[in-house]
Amino acid sequence: MQTSAITPSSGTADADTIAIALFAGEQPPPDSPPAVTELLSSDEARRSFKSLALTHADGKRWLLVGLGAREELTAERARVAAAVASQRAREISTRALCWQLPGDAPGASAEEIAAALVEGTILSDYRYERYKSKPDGEDAEADRPPKHLERLILAGAPERAAALETAVAEATVLAEAVNRARELQNRPGNDLTPTALGEYAKQLASEVEGVSVEVEGRGQILARGMGAFAAVAQGSDQEPALITISYDGRSSTTPSGPTLGFVGKAVTFDSGGISLKPGAKMAEMKFDMSGGAAVIEAVSAIARLRLPVKLMAVVGATENLPSGHAIKPGDIVTAANGTTVEINNTDAEGRLVLADCLCHAVAQGAERIVDLATLTGAVIVALGSTYAGLMSNDDELAGRVAQAGERTGEIVWRLPLHEEYEELIKGTYADLDNAPEGHKAGTIVGATFLSNFVGETPWVHLDIAGSAWELDRAYVGKGASGYAVRLLVELARSYCA
Q1: Is 277 a catalytic residue?
Q2: Greatest extent of the chain over all pairs of C-alpha atoms, in Å
Q3: Residue 228, CB-side half-sphere exposure with 13 Å CA sphere
Q4: Among the four 185, 246, 371, 446, which has the fewest Cβ within 10 Å?
Q5: How far apart are CA 240 and CA 267, in angstroms?
Q6: Is 315 exposed, middle or buried (0-12, 13-18, 19+ CB in 10 A)?
Q7: Predicted confidence pLDDT, tens digits, the chain (497 residues)
Q8: Half-sphere exposure of 268 (CA within 13 A, CB side)
Q9: What CA–CA distances, in Å, run from 192 to 196, 220, 266, 314?
Q10: Which of 149, 141, 33 shows the shortest CA–CA distance to 94?
Q11: DSSP string of 375-414?
């Protein structure tokens, strides 16, 4: 989708459909055609949030979008409104949609609203069509309404043209990165293998300036002493991949902030291993690589935006399958930092992969670490899909991540880490137990386990099991959500000031 910002009246824009924002207690823009006022007078158009009405004038369609009270408008509400409007626009065969920007609101500036409208439109326009057959013949395709918008235009005040153009361009980069993460998530396990994910990351390095990627396989993982990661991978014939991505956008004139470390779990298919999952919905376990997808595309967006930060990312990619080579309940493995782990449940494999990846991030010099993983079903019980779970050993970093979540709409809820939880993960025959019996505080226990592999480095763990797919927000709907790409980019921005 092409995006652009213009300053003339939206009525003169090269668009077949014009979207006008309506606020409670306010009149439509003065240059609106009389048909808009007539719709409001007849009560066919309403100003309540997400209300839609359509009219025709001056050879264009005019889509009236209710936004509710101006003081209640936030960037997140603008994303939702954009998704609702773009869906209706596609239904009426729109190819070029122009939003007449509503100006500032107490909860968001005009530029923030413009960026949110871009994000909401591009995200809602995404469809996973990699394996869909195309209709036979050109005539069959011509008879269908367009599946996607071709152009999105934002019309704003002339005196803020430069800021508006920047906001639109950056939001486009960000939304496209989220959709690429969703494309990775939606690919089936026989397509997106660990090797394929490693190749994708290497392709990124060839396309984006300043990014370097190293991909290591089974032998190198073992040579690094990553016994926990290797143990998960040994049940599959597919080669695992330790993906390390580096980016340094700093210069002599930019602030010298900490080296950021993003760590992502990328189990490209998780059967549970010997501790086999139930068959119902096991197909969804292709999404167990969602943390890795988010990390890769967050780095991609940060590099494309040329943010002046230094970061490195670590993604542990593997399958978790049962076989004659697979780890068994009762086995003991040794992680890269020398910690021994008793395997009580092979379906608690994500923390084993992350343990060694966190050690690697620390060894590579990461000074602030955020890991993302679809780690526990318990977080869905606790928080549903509204919030991701956040656990941390550092209040300042936890606060930054939470604020980034508020600004992007990818909100998080902090759960406690307490020394008593350490008692729950102590092993009977080894230092730690990967899945202690008792089923207490499952999400917190997972994070407590991971805390043993970061030392004193400030660290945040995000459990995104409830948010990575089936988020069911207006702008992502069903399937993969690309959750936390925008949050990580916003976190990186916070270190640029």
Answers
A1: yes
A2: 79
A3: 31
A4: 246
A5: 9
A6: buried
A7: 999 999 866 556 789 999 999 999 999 988 899 999 999 999 999 999 999 999 999 999 999 999 999 999 999 999 999 999 999 999 999 999 999 999 999 999 999 999 999 999 999 999 999 998 876 665 555 567 778 999 999 999 889 999 999 999 999 999 999 999 999 999 999 999 999 999 999 999 999 999 999 999 999 999 999 999 999 999 999 999 999 999 999 987 776 799 999 999 999 999 999 999 999 999 999 999 999 999 999 999 999 999 999 999 999 999 999 999 999 999 999 999 999 999 999 999 999 999 999 999 999 999 999 999 999 999 999 999 999 999 999 999 999 999 999 999 999 999 999 999 999 999 999 999 999 987 899 999 999 999 999 999 999 999 999 999 999 899 998 899 999 999 999 999 999 97
A8: 25
A9: 5, 21, 10, 18
A10: 149
A11: --THHHHHHTTT-EEEEES-HHHHHHHHHHHHHHT--EEE
Q: Quick one: tokens of 346?
A: 């092979």
- The whole-angstrom separation of Cα 409 and Cα 403 is 10
Catalytic residue among 95, 250, 277, 414: 277
* Exposed / middle / buried, residue 147 (Cβ in 10 Å: 0-12, 13-18, 19+): exposed
The residue among 320, 461, 319, 300 whose CA lies nearest residue 379 is 461
449 half-sphere exposure, CB direction, 13 A CA radius: 32
Name the strand (E) or helix (H) holding 335. none
Of the candidates 351, 368, 400, 486, the residue annotated as catalytic is 351
Residue (of 97, 90, 71, 192) closest to 145 by Cα position = 90
The candidate with the shortest Cα–Cα distance to 390, out of 363, 356, 415, 421, is 415
Would residue 202 be called left, alpha or beta, if left means φ above 0 and alpha means ψ between -120 and 50 degrees?
A: alpha
Instruction: Answer yes or no: 60 catalytic.
Output: no
Joined tokens for residue 195: 């090797």
Q: Per-residue DSSP letters for 410-451?
A: --EEE----HHHHHHTB-SSSSEESS-TT--SHHHHHHHHHG
Q: Do residues 360 and 314 touch, judged by C-beta distance below 8 A?
A: yes
CA distance 413 to 417: 13
| 21 vs 2: CA distance, rounded Å | 21
Beta-bridge partners for 216? 242
Helix (H, G, I), strand (E, B) or coil at 244: strand
**What gap in Å lies between CA 273 and CA 409, rounded to an integer?**
35
Supply φ then ψ for residue 375, to 5 degrees.
Answer: -90, -45
393 and 417 Cβ atoms separated by less than 8 Å: yes
Bin 210: left if φ > 0, else alpha if -120 < ψ < 50, else beta: left
